[in-house]
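Complex record, two chains
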Amino acid sequence: MHINISSRLQNLRTLQQFLSVIALLTVSVSATAKLNIGITLHPYHSYVTNIVSDRANVMPLIEAGFNPHAYKLSPADLNRLKNMDAIVVNGIGHDEFAMEAIRKLNLPNLTVIEANAAVPLISKQGGKVHNPHTFVAIDATIRQVYTIARELGKLDPNNAKFFLKNALSYAKKLRTIKNKALENISPLDIGLIRIASTHGAYGYLLQEFGMTVSAVVEPAHGVSPSASQLQDTINKIKSANVQVLFTELNMPNQYVDVIENETGTRIYHFSHMTYGEYRDALVLEDMTHNLKTLVEALTYASETLNNGL
Amino acid sequence: MKIHSETVLARDGKLEDKIVFGFSLLTLLTAAALLYALYGHQHSDFTAIPKPIRAALTSLSNAGEEIQIIREIEEYIPSIDSLSELGIAPFTPSALSTQIQFSWEQVSSCYVGTSVIGTKQYFVKLELPDLIDQPAKAYWFADAENQKSRAELKQLCIDSTITWHSAATFDNINTKTHAH
């Protein structure tokens, strides 16, 4: 009888030790397990990789090379979505392909991080429609980077400070690009410069330099204006005395040449940052390009106005 | 065998047209009424952030994050002068004539700024939370009737008569939606 009880106690101790080892292993695995963070657009890949470095896995929801404006998710995309712990979204109109699926699928383990949650948005009255191109501007990008870092820190508290530190460092890099542009723009007389753009992607970027867009050419992104709309735009550009027209890199728009010829407005190309492969350096590189282009355009417009042309 | 016969008068189609039209109209009106009841009034009192202060509010919101980081690392709340020296916008003087300049005051963990643009006076405010791991919140208020123009700027940090709007558009939408 005594042996039997002792044997049972021994078994219980062994079981207890076994469970403790399992519990320890689980804790250590969960402590080292990396978050799988999804992104919907190219700029968010840059933001998130710069925030998390090697302490999380960053996975694009859709493969490179697709136009996010009219994309439909494939079964492979949906599988990727189901394997994510979190997904960073634009959430205000540029990644509706993802938002639609997220709303319908009801994935309880997926945390949706709304990058634009704290951004002061360009909104239409009523508050239902917003300009979604916050990722083309410097300060709006910094705002999104901080929001993403904070939200990821909530999901991975062990790395929360690391994420925020990286966000601050990334913000400094972005601000350096802006300050360099400001140095070049500040001597210019830009008060009378008038700007047109092919679509509304550059509103956030231009407002950071105190500029507004006098005319937007395309009725919607990638949609060429009709002949009568084009004529109206040409008249509007002429009457507003627009000096520069911003359009998108790698977007062949024949009507832009017509506008240039008819109005004498000079064309400059900005990157929309939603093309090609997903790259960590995309945003810093393309922001540098965009602000260099902005400086060139404003210098040209300022000289044109000074020369009274 | 008895054959039962019934004479059916041919319709001229006019009555059916009226009935179909009536039902179509009723369906459309019901759908419109339902849609309005569900969504129509949700964002009717949404106030879009005014164009002249939108960029400054974005900078202010970013500054809030950076002030929280300073609080955490250096354990103090920076003054307006030190924020300006650190080059943190919008506390630092603007390099461009096209950007707005604000006058600033600070009351403990609240920063409030004002600028006159055209005929309107705009106020912006940054409130730091008690906890350093929480984000700061930025707000704005447009004083179209210049009622607050003579008020001491510092008082606006505690003035409960002002309806401040959140700089985060998402907050505005959610607040308005929940209010109904």
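Note: The first helix of chain B runs from residue 14 to 40.
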